[in-house]
Amino acid sequence: MENQRSYESAGRWLSTVHRYGYMHLSKTFDEYGLGEGQVKFLMVLFEKKEQTQEQMANVLNIDKTTTARAVKKLEDEGYVTRKPHATDRRSHLVCLTAKALDMEPMIRSILKDWTNTLTEDFTDEEKVIVVGLLKRMATNAIAKIKQEEGVKEK
Amino acid sequence: MENQRSYESAGRWLSTVHRYGYMHLSKTFDEYGLGEGQVKFLMVLFEKKEQTQEQMANVLNIDKTTTARAVKKLEDEGYVTRKPHATDRRSHLVCLTAKALDMEPMIRSILKDWTNTLTEDFTDEEKVIVVGLLKRMATNAIAKIKQEEGVKEK
DNA sequence: CACGAAAGGTTGCTAATGCAACTACTTTTT
DNA sequence: AAAAAGTAGTTGCATTAGCAACCTTTCGTG
C-alpha cells in the first residue's frame, strides 16, 4: 500500500481527455447542428441502419433517457426519423435520413482526426494497445456497475 | 483511409469508462456529502496544501467557473475554508479543514479501489502503460485546444 | 382471460461542466 | 499619475448525463 503521492492515476487523465474531447467535438460539430452527445447514436445507426432506442442504449451502455433526448434532437435537426415498430406499438424504429447519410464521411473524418490528435506521437503499436486497454477497462467498469445494481435489487 | 467499420475508437471506450467512473464515484462519495466533481480539487489540495482557485484550475486544466462552484460546495460541506490572500485582494487561498484531512485516506482508497476495478485483469506492466498512454493523450488534447484558442484570438 | 410483472419511452429533477459577460482588484504603459 | 490591459472570481445560460417516477403496451402465469 505505497503512498500514492501525486495525483497521477488513470482516472485523472481519463477525465481530462474526455473533457477536452467533449470541448473540441462540440465546437466542431456545432455548425452541423449536432452536439457531441448525439454523434455516438449516429455512429450506431451508421452500422446498424435501424434500431430501437432501447437497442441503441444497450449497445452504447447509455441510459435510456439520455438516448431518448439525443434521438429527439437528431430528429429535430433532420438526421433521423422514427417510424412505428411493426409488431410492438411501444417502440419506434429510429432510421437515418439522407442528410445523415450524406454527412457520414464528414462525421467519421472529424472523429478520426480527433483520435489522430490524441495519438499523434504514438507508434502504430501503441495506437492498437491503447484501444485494447481502454476497451478492457470499459468492460471491467460495466461489469462492476452491473454487479452493484444486482446487489441493490436482490 | 481504411473504412472503419465498427465504432471501436479510443474515444468510444474512453467515454464509457468516464461515465461509469462518474456513476460509481458519485454514488460512493455521496454519503460523505461529496460529489465526484469536487474530489479532484481535494486531491490537489492534499498535495499542495494551499492553493488559489486559479492555481487549482490550471493544475487540473479545468475551467475557473467549474472550479469556483466546486470550491463553494466543498466549503458548504466543511471540507475547505477560504482565507484572504496576503497580498492580492482579488484572490483567496483555499485550505483544507481537519475534516478533509481525516477523510484523506478514505478518499484515496475509494479512488484506488476504482482504479483497481478498471485494471482488474491487467498485468503490472499494463497498469503502468495505460497511465502513461492516457497522460500522453491528455497532453496532446490540451496542446490542441490551446492551439485552437491561440488561433481564435490572433 | 385477467392480473401482475416487464419492457419501451417520456418528463421532472439534479450534477458537472464550459462559455460569455461582468465586477473588482493589480500591473503595465504612456 | 491616469489610462489601458490583465488577472481572480462570480453569475447566467446551455449541454450532456443519470435517476426516480410515471404512462402505455406487451407478456406470462394462474
How does this model look, in words?
Two copies of one chain form a homodimer. The mean pLDDT of chain A is 89. Chain A is 68% helix and 8% strand. A three-stranded antiparallel sheet of chain A has the order 1-3-2. Chain A has helices spanning 10-30, 36-48, 53-60, 64-76, 98-118, 124-152; strands spanning 50-52, 80-84, 92-96. Chain A has 154 residues and is mainly α. The interface between A and B is large, with 56 and 56 residues. Chain B binds a DNA duplex (30 and 30 nucleotides) through helix 1, helix 2 and helix 4.
Keywords:
homodimer, 154 residues, mainly alpha, 3-stranded antiparallel sheet, 6 helices, 68% helix, 8% strand, globular, DNA-binding, transcription regulation (chains A, B), HTH_MarR-typ (chains A, B), WH_DNA-bd_sf (chains A, B)
Strand segment count of chain A: 3
Let me know the largest β-sheet of chain A: 3 strands, antiparallel
Q: Structural class per helix/strand content of chain A?
A: mainly alpha
Contiguous uncertain segments of 5+ residues of chain A: none
Described by the principal axes of the CA atoms, the overall outline of chain A is globular
- The helix tally of chain A amounts to 6
Give helix and strand order of chain A, one letter per element, not per position.
HHEHHEEHH
Mean of pLDDT of chain A: 89
Could you give the order of strands across the largest sheet of chain A? 1-3-2
* Biggest interface and residues each: A-B, 56 and 56 residues
What oligomeric state is this?
Answer: homodimer
How much beta of chain A, percentage-wise? 5-15%
Rg of chain A computed from alpha carbons, rounded to a whole number of angstroms: 18 Å
Helix content of chain A: 55-70%
Measure the end-to-end span of chain A. Answer: 33 Å
